[in-house]
């Protein structure tokens, strides 16, 4: 082999993500590769079940719908609507992240009438409705908000993982998230994050997220159908199971993120006739109508 091809081989490796990296990719490059592979589709609708388990083993089940839409200018719109149990049915939690980095959260509580309240999720580390998740835990990683540092690789269950430390850029981000640092464990074979350790401002581990039932859903894009969050301090766990997932703009129109859609109770089940029912039949139809988009993914 001549010198030139040998140098090229030593300097570059082709990862399974299809991206060309330096022989030792940095933490930022790993995170960028993960985003380009798994977070590129902008329209997602999900039906979810959440199971809360306390220190005594008591369980509390909730059901909700999740709408996520990313605009062409990068604005992120995220909405959670709770349908069960009856005492929280109709509660809606909305997050909007604007292209300039500004984040707004608001909460709709039907019992308080037609008004949106600033969500407690703005507060440092605040979780929502008794779960162990913050709103930001459930939204796509905003790479521009963090400094990333690659740590030593780790083998977990005979699978090689990148390990990346993420620290907030600036006090505002740190206050909004409530985390001093996170450590992400990312499978090398598909660049999918399967575990996130959360540390407080004193670098003490207090929470861990693990992702299970990981499946390839479209091309090289992967998704997890179960997300477990364990709070070690409270001895409390929250498990989210994805019951149904659809990638289609039809299920997340712009109107769903406007004030009126919630304040006029059009977000309640059966109230909005423009939203198709999440059945296998309508899912397939939606897929056929959007030829440039992946279709629905019923979750077993």
From TrEMBL:
Membrane-traversing stretches: none
CDD domains according to UniProt: LolA_like (cd16329)
Organism the protein comes from: Solemya pervernicosa gill symbiont
The protein's name: Uncharacterized protein TP-0789 domain-containing protein
Domain Uncharacterized protein TP-0789 span(s) in chain numbering: 77-249
Signal peptide positions (record): 1-22
InterPro entries for this protein: TP_0789-like (IPR033399)
Biased composition (Polar residues): 276-294
Region (Disordered) residue spans: 272-300
Keyword field: Signal
Keyword DNA-binding carried by entry: no
Keyword Signal attributed: yes
